[in-house]
Amino acid sequence: MTTKIFVNLPVKNLNQSVEFFTKLGFTFNPQFTDETATCMIVAEDIFVMLLTEDKFKTFTPKEICDATKSTEVLICLSSESREKVDEMVHKAVAAGGTTYNQPQDHGFMYGHGFQDLDGHIWEVLFMEPDAIHQVNHGKKQ
Questions:
Q1: What is the dihedral angle through the alpha carbons of 53, 59, 60, 61, rounded to the nearest 10 degrees?
Q2: What is the CATH number of domain 1-63?
């Protein structure tokens, strides 16, 4: 059985968050969507549960972090090219998100990122295929 990952994020306005991520090209599983939560499909085995703050509070005894003031998680998505990295960030900004830094070009690796409507940081990263092969085989640190 393949392990699936479900990242859970609190959002202030579920409908606005769905609209934002739809503009970035994401889709949602209606089977796991209601007025308090939705399941955003990132990949075959990767999902982001966007939960209203009230719903999110039912899963944790801790206070919810205000992601506009503190960082509770960094979400990093791989991309197929440098151009696709820039395209995703451009779409996020056009949909109401913001950038938090300049693009980072490390030669074999290129990344940029954005903050969503609730301030969660989403990094988007492209790594040259040869570099991935070398990392997987212990040749690059």
A1: 100
A2: 3.10.180.10
